[in-house]
């Protein structure tokens, strides 16, 4: 708090101007000054320090930020919920909207649907249905709050958002009061200030003085707002109450005595995560948050309650007592634990990643991330490969120099014919390294390249055949959705949360063919396998008419379908459903494929699929196998005399079979390009230095090519990306999503194969153990043990 006060004193700004806002990170704060505003509710409390640093760097003066108005008043456009409201003249609105950032969802309201209210004497036009709280935000007035959150239902618990409305006898809770035409709202009167001071006094009455030992210290809403609105003395002389801590599992630490009963966590659990594990027990002075039955939170999104908790009641258990927020360096990046590509911020101190928190992106992950994305970071420093290794004559791996390791690889290449070579890109490979692998093997005359998983070849010809064409955000508009061979809670929890949002908000009807699982929302289980799929393809199933009559139908195929031997026949049946039910139409492409791994979309864009002449039984004849971080390839299928090169960052499954190990960098140590399951191109950036003697993956492949006398034509990442632009231009458009080619049945070859009657299954058996980083994580191992066999939890 000392550093915060010092900065605020230099700026001459009242502390409550830095109250919770989703513009915590520096990039969003910069958008305030490019006339783009963001929602002023909390995304995650951890961003406070980057905000303060951004203020200090900009040297904002009194004239720039008025004492009684937040920085949002400098913006011409303000979004409330999912809508953006303009306070500029109509002639400037079009220009302002054009400046909106890529990840903002902009909807300009119809002027006929707006009303005029007065906030502190200033007229403001807002859409009908907005609350007084939202009207104040549009006007640029920052209202303090604890319980309000834009993505949760309104509770009105904390009463901190009290304002005065003319002709009302007492202050009103602005978050729960609808705005009416001509309403005159006052936010800074003596009555309002005294009421807020009284509310703060009640909140602090039983709150412990734990600030020096609380992990929320320095980024706590209660600290900031008590400084801004609280009294300079306390009158509560009685004994403070205490509350027993709850066991919410290995991820969330509880100190329930600090809880102020805002119920954000309860509403998140029931509304977003779809679990009923948390609730309010008791009333009045005995009220507390509890779990009814003592058990861990059985959700893949449980860690998000840490971000939305305004005090130190819910904090990160793995992060506890490890660092203070002002000690951490923050780096924007993306998560690569699944194919969603959630936007994250990596907080590091020195050479170590200390924690991972979400970053706002409306079109991808909103402000949530999965527990796997948030907590697997401890695996980044365990079981790491930090130096090259060569297997000696006794079958043991021993450390070697880079020269010796590269020479061993080059010697193996020269002894092997091109048709006996193969290369496999793993789940976490970035586009740059996959280009280098492709160019290296192609120069050697080898066409046997693939992403990990043998089943992606049939869908690689047409881009719309392997992307989530509906888009993640577009799933909210779906009114009917058919899931085929997928378990969304395991494979993509954030996509599942979007579909849950469509069910809750739009009454969408969801049906599934595959494993019977709890998706956290109501859905119909039509069957487990191909028999039901054929009935739908022939139009004989009752659900077919529901799908055909839908306004925005979606057919979502899980990635596990492509691991089946009959995948082509299954996809042919899916294509018939899509065609007969008119799922793809003008302005709407409801056919979507959910890829499972971060590397798949970019790998297919780059053509990492076997050439036409590569036989199906290629593993029988392979003599040289290059594994680019591929840890899930069944090595028992590779001949014993094959020379295996493993290039990766963890000592995982493939290491036991490798003849040469070349240590690479993780996604937190390098700059890399990824495309998520909807084809959106995003990048990772180095947050910490590369460990030991490891190197960037593309640089290793470039070195291999030079030693093998097939030198690749790029020496820096700029030249490499120029090559990427030539192969797949869409991968050069960062933070954008290029529309895929429309689904065309007439371009697809006829398939006459029969389907295997075995049921559809998900290939993700354990949500917490899907890649080498997760398998090295102690936290993920604890989650696996804690949630094994829990009814309603993830399938393990």
Automatic annotation (TrEMBL):
GO terms for cellular component: membrane. Pfam families: Fer2_4, Fer4_NDSU1, Fer4_Nqo3, Molybdopterin, NADH-G_4Fe-4S_3, NADH_dhqG_C. Residues 113-191 form the 2Fe-2S ferredoxin-type domain. InterPro entries: 2Fe-2S_ferredoxin-like_sf, 2Fe-2S_ferredoxin-type, Mopterin_OxRdtase, Mopterin_OxRdtase_4Fe-4S_dom, NADH_UbQ_OxRdtase_75kDa_su_CS, NADH_UbQ_OxRdtase_ferredoxin, NADH_UbQ_OxRdtase_Gsu, NADH_UbQ_OxRdtase_Gsu_4Fe4S-bd. Coiled coil: none annotated. Its cofactor is [4Fe-4S] cluster; [2Fe-2S] cluster. It comes from the Eukaryota. Gene3D superfamilies: 3.10.20.740, 3.30.200.210, 3.30.70.20, 3.40.50.740. Residues 328-384 form the 4Fe-4S Mo/W bis-MGD-type domain. Residues 191-230 form the 4Fe-4S His(Cys)3-ligated-type domain. PROSITE patterns: 2FE2S_FER_2, 4FE4S_HC3, 4FE4S_MOW_BIS_MGD, COMPLEX1_75K_1, COMPLEX1_75K_2, COMPLEX1_75K_3. Belongs to the complex I 75 kDa subunit family. This is NADH dehydrogenase [ubiquinone] iron-sulfur protein 1, mitochondrial.
